[in-house]
Amino acid sequence: MSRKSIIIGITCLLVISGIAYFFLASRFSGDTQGQQPTTASLDIGDMRQNSTKRLERYGQILSAYAADHDGRYPADVYKLDPYITPQDYKDGAIGKFIIQNVASAAFGKAVKDLPHGVAAYDRTLSQVADGTNVLFADGHVEFVGTARLGSLGIEPGPALQMAEVTATYDVTLPEPWKPFVSAGKLEVIGPPFYAVRMKFFAAWPYVRIRWSVQNLTSEPVDLAVQYKGSCVGGGFRTGHNIWYRLAPNEHRSIEDIVPVTTRKAPVIIEIQAATLRHAGTKVDLPTMQRLVITKPLPPGTLPPNRLVIMDEKASKFLVKDVRLDNLKAPDNVLEVKVANRTDSELPLIVYAAAADTAHGDVGGAKSPVEGMFVQKTVSVAGHGEAVVRLPFSVPNTGPDPSLVFTLLEPIKYPLSADDVQFCADVQHAMDSFYIPVCWGWFNLRQAAEKGLVYLSPSESVEQRAELTARKESQHFLFRFRPNSYAEQHIDAAVKDREEAYQQLATRLQMELSEKVAIDLYGDQEAKGLGSGTYWTPANTVNNKHIAEVYNDNYQCDRYHELAHLFSYRFPAKTNTEAFAEYCETETAERIASLREEVKRKLVAGELKPLAEISLKGLDAAHSVFIDFLIREDVERFKRAYGRFVDAKVPDERERICMEVYGYSLKDLEKRWQTYLLK
Questions:
Q1: Does domain 461-569 have CATH number 3.40.30.160?
Q2: Three-state secondary-structure class, residue 95
Q3: What per-residue confidence (pLDDT) applies to 279?
Q4: If 602 and its partner were Cys, which of 73, 369, 490, 607 is the partner (CB 3.0–4.6 Å)?
Q5: Could you tell me which of 363, 273, 369, 375 has the C-alpha nearest to residue 334?
Q6: Nearest CA among 641, 560, 573, 650 for reference residue 610
Q7: pLDDT value for 460
């Protein structure tokens, strides 16, 4: 086959194999994606129709709960978890809709006592339409105009005033930070688009931002902030923490991309202050303080192909070409050509993920090197050029897949022990030491029609999410698709999980009261539709069963999600990731070396007291502390650990220790030190 390629050129027209393809590569300064949005762009008709269907199902869920509880509704939405089924997620993410969009008048009341018979209404719809959908106690849903809402005791939400596509906002710094840093205005360049999220290795909706910050002192300043994105109406949020190290008197222009929850509905960007460190001393705040909150940004309308280069003048890299190559099916390749503008050798990371971005907001899986996510890191010599060739295959992600890519420059700070602890204190902000160079995507269906990529035969996501085969074992019910990888390897999966169950049950001296259902999906999009959670390849659903991606490229750790189900049934129930990570195979295999690492810190006088050790993330000390508590007394561990994690102040840990162990935190610490020094 002759070499064919598809190129996104920098505002150029290319002719390949006799056919002209035109792709506009938008520069950072000029990419507006069209005119200022209106509420018409929100597709009110579709919103009403989807809202009606979901509210009707919500009414059925409420009625089922009330029938089991003497005609009374639950105190809050989370009591409804057992009544929300996997099919509800497939039929429109009911649970997510309830949390994000619905205002309920029913909670804590008897059915017969509902004022005006109103059980709930769609608060988000009320912000964009001349009225909203109302769910009544008898289960019917009616669209009620704004003029009549007041008579039903409903106050419509404030009219949704959309932000301009490029909008500017003031940054309000906390008073304790003002002697150390100043900040310029924040510019948000919307609406959302797709890039590859660094931590979750997935195609993810993002919004671009630009702002500046200046160090006002003659000492280094470390500034940690949280970027957050949420849907209008509340509910699910996403985001990340990031750490900026500012040299003495440095004035820095920051251009970054912020993950959001969706590109198909209005979203709000928020930046919060995490912590600041000046000359080695932290300037903590009593509570998190908001630096910026934006008006709702309009939904994103995506062209088939796009390349956007971040601040080209400031970038250390010049992006020359990004193209797709298909030399021989099924060997697809993403090819990136870059030039290093500096005197020094620099690393560059290329991330790519395949997803059906046309049919949903999707996140991918932590797949090793094939399928949903691929990556490659190269070093580019000073003033040199490099061509990065990234092979990829396209998993069965839906009828209209795209290949989304992001180029990143990793930033490496020389980290001291204090730096590492600082990062841990701000929830692993060091995970975000990347500067985006450019991002974009290709529509693979269009490329395949022109012979430029190879796509395997596709099934709809609804078909791939339908798990009709069953396999039952002593402690599990496995559900999967016939003729799938899971069916071919189901006996090994059963053996694997039963072994994990027995080991956890023995270690924790407890059993689960009912069988655990494990849903094995062939790909991340099907798993997202079936479980309602797109952003991770494995998760628990309603703290009762497990949903995960299971294919030839990816199988999750056999202990992790099961550990969540055990820990949720502790007397002091907890759902912390740290305990699940502690139970993972990898951690178990290296606990001895972790213990030696913590022992060295103790001997050197560098180990923090138990009252001060962070239990939010899983570092070496936290892992070894869990191991110690289980070995010391597993029953007391189950009563104390979740409370230790949730404790807000050191005195609270002291009180918990006295209640559960009968002695002080200092005495527990002496026992821990003895355990470390054995």
A1: yes
A2: helix
A3: 83
A4: 607
A5: 375
A6: 650
A7: 76
